[in-house]
Structure formats: structure tokens, C-alpha cells
Structure to design on (180 residues):
């Protein structure tokens, strides 16, 4: 069995709520093992027989759409991938009150998306694409950015994404290290 971490979009935001116990049950109904959640924002850790992550993402998305009645995008990473994401530092630390956020997407953004993100760089917002993640350096509060609301960031990406702060990503990587 292989351990995976799923980052889910649209969990416990925008008035849509789900208890973590119910979310775990939805994963277990798919035959996934040792299912755990980490904070209430849609981080699910589980084990499954080795499979393509894209197949697991589709399976989880279909199950959640059927059980919850709306689309929930899933972005799956292995503990090794998560360790690399947590360790990757494309920017110097932001000033006090700012933060580094990581957007997960299912495929590496293409050159036009990278160019569109570069055009959004300001003194307060900077972007860097690495693999299937977009690192977003924010000088102020995340919710103070005009890009954090009304799906503007996803419109630039052109695909669904989910964002976590780097502290959450680092804590997950520490809690679920690579198995030796």
C-alpha cells in the first residue's frame, strides 16, 4: 500500500461544510485505507494500492460529487512529492503579516499561464511555477489580495486549483514523512 495526501478544493468554504468524519467515510467507501484528515480544509491522508494519481483523483472527485452534490477537485501528492514541495523556497521570507501560499494543480502550467502569472507580479504578490504547484508570495494577508477572491486566480490558471499556506504544507510533510 502506498500513502497519498489529497488536497481537496471547495471543502468547508463558501457556506459548504462537511464534517471530517463524513469525509473520511467517503474515502473509505472507495476502498482506501488508513484514512485521516488534517485540519478542516480538505487535507486527506490515505493509503491505496499503487496507482496512477490521476486515476485516484478522478475516482475521488466522482465519489465526492455523487455524495456531496457539487464538484470537488482533488490534487494528490505522495509524501516524497510533498517533502519536495515543502522544502522548495523560490522566494525570501515575506515580511511580518505576509506569507507563502502554494496552489496545487493537476498538471504543470504551460508557458502562457506562466507568462500571465508573471504579468500579475506586484510588490505585494509574486508567483513562481514549479512542477504542478504555483508558489504565491504575498506581502500582506492572503485575503487582502484582489486575486484571492471571486476565482480570479483560477481564471488566470485556466484550471481548478486549491491553495494552502506553506505552514500547513510543511506540517503535513513533517507529520507524514517518506516511508523508508
Amino acid at each position: 500500500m502506498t500513502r497519498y495526501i489529497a488536497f481537496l478544493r471547495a471543502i468547508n468554504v463558501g457556506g459548504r461544510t462537511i464534517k471530517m468524519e463524513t469525509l473520511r467515510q467517503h474515502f473509505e467507501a472507495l476502498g482506501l485505507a488508513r484514512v485521516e484528515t488534517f485540519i478542516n480544509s480538505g487535507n486527506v491522508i490515505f493509503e491505496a494500492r499503487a496507482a496512477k494519481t490521476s486515476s485516484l483523483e478522478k475516482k475521488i472527485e466522482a465519489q465526492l460529487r455523487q455524495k456531496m452534490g457539487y464538484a470537488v477537485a482533488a490534487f494528490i501528492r505522495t509524501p516524497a512529492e510533498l517533502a519536495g514541495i515543502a522544502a522548495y523556497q523560490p522566494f525570501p521570507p515575506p515580511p511580518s503579516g505576509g506569507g507563502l501560499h502554494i496552489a496545487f494543480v493537476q498538471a504543470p502550467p504551460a508557458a502562457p499561464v506562466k507568462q500571465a502569472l508573471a504579468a500579475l507580479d506586484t510588490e505585494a504578490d509574486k508567483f513562481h511555477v514549479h512542477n504542478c504547484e504555483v508558489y504565491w508570495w504575498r506581502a500582506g494577508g492572503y485575503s487582502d489580495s484582489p486575486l484571492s477572491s471571486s476565482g480570479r486566480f483560477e481564471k488566470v490558471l485556466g484550471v481548478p486549483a486549491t491553495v494552502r499556506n506553506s505552514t500547513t504544507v510543511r506540517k503535513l510533510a513533517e507529520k507524514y514523512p517518506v516511508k523508508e
User: Anything to note?
Assistant: Residues 9 and 162 are 5 Å apart (CA to CA). The first strand starts at residue 2 and ends at 8. The chain has two domains: 2-77, 82-175.
